Amino acid sequence: MTDPVLPVPPAPGSSRPLTPVSKVLRLCLHALLLGLLALAAGRALADSAPRAGWVVAACAVLAAVYAGGVRTPAVHRSPGAGAVWLAALGTAWAGLLAVSPDGLWIAFPLYFLELHLLRLRWGVAAVALTACAAICGFLAHSGDVTAGAFLGPLLGGAVAVATVLGYQALYRESERRRELIEELIATRAELAAAERGAGILAERERLAREIHDTLAQGLSSIQLLLRAAERTLSDEGPAGSAGAGTKPSAGPAPEPAGSAGAAAGGGQAAALAHIAQAREAAQENLAEARRFVRALTPPDLEHGSLPAALRRLCAGAPWPRVRFSLSGSPRVLPTPYEVALLRIAQSALANVVRHARARRAEITLTFMDASVTLDIVDDGQGFDPRSAAAARGDGGFGLPAMRSRAETLGGLFTVESDPGQGTAVAVTLPLPLEAS
Length: 436
What we know:
It catalyses: ATP + protein L-histidine = ADP + protein N-phospho-L-histidine. Pfam families: HATPase_c, HisKA_3. It is found in: Cytoplasm. This protein is of the alpha+beta class and 436 residues long. Among the domains are: 20-145, no CATH class; 302-436, Histidine kinase-like ATPase, C-terminal domain (Heat Shock Protein 90, 2-Layer Sandwich). It has helices at 20-46, 52-70, 73-77, 79-99, 107-117, 120-142, 147-245, 254-293, 299-302, 306-315, 335-356, 388-392, 398-408, and strands spanning 321-327, 360-367, 371-378, 412-417, 423-430. A five-stranded mixed beta sheet has the order 1-2-3-5-4, covered by helices on one side. Strand 2 (360-367) and strand 3 (371-378) form a beta hairpin. Helix 2 (52-70) packs antiparallel against helix 4, helix 5 (107-117) packs antiparallel against helix 6 and helix 7 packs across helix 11 (335-356). The model is unreliable at 1-15 and 239-255 (pLDDT under 50).
């Protein structure tokens, strides 16, 4: 198993560097083993032991084997290589233990190496074998059988096992927390991306509603007015051409020519009136385009109230005749409410003009204690609101857009219609506390 406390360097290409605590523990293990080797060699030289040279040589061999394993990446990557390194360390340690009783203390750092480089059950077995070797070495050098000779290595092995198991438990807990933090970071990034996507979709929907309720309706009105002007001019064209290209004859001929000229002049005046209305609608839509792109208040609401804007809307309808009525005590509504009600009225009236073939229509704005209601009723040809085409909004964006505007503000949107029975559109918005 791999662990950042190992005294061997991490595998090449490892994506997780050692933490400061892991580096300190690694250095402490290095210092412990090398310090104990230096202590054993120093005591042998200081006491002028008969086998001092052998002790120093055994310490040097053990230090060389240890350093070679630390510098070998394969020991860290491969359990087999780690086991071979441990076997070499054990052999060198056995040689030191044979010539010096101070080699007993090297067992303690060996416990940690065995527990880290081997699987748990094999590591515990290696610790037990090392403890037995340490006890046998002590008994061979001292010759006295005491409780301390057995308890010291056994307690040291037990402390090492408990320490490593506790550290591994903490390490696993730390890994789980790290994974949870990474998941939370990834989830937060996904939520941020989802919020950005939702914001983009909401802005697209806003632009689609605004374009439908302003530019699209205005362009439809301009088209209808220009068609009316075209029909007027085409109807008067033959009469005007006849009057201009035929010589007047004797008798009562001048009188019909004068009547034709007057009729032609009236037709041109009507056509010019339609063109003037079309130009005015184009200017209004240009102003609307500039404002809704910047998410500003519609021009009809900038310098007046919602009832006044609805009155102007009814008065500006080319046909049918539209009447506006107000019920209840008017009050100032929040801007989103006024914009939504005005846009719904514009969209519904545009549907009346283009599709209903109605003779009359009426827009009613009703203020109540806790809500405001807008009704648009016409006597046109009607339709089946339960049909699939109406539910999808085929042929236009109107009904879905009106419903979306109402539901965004917590309101209720209803459509009542039958073929040949006209149409009634109603939207009710609950008033906010400060407005009610």
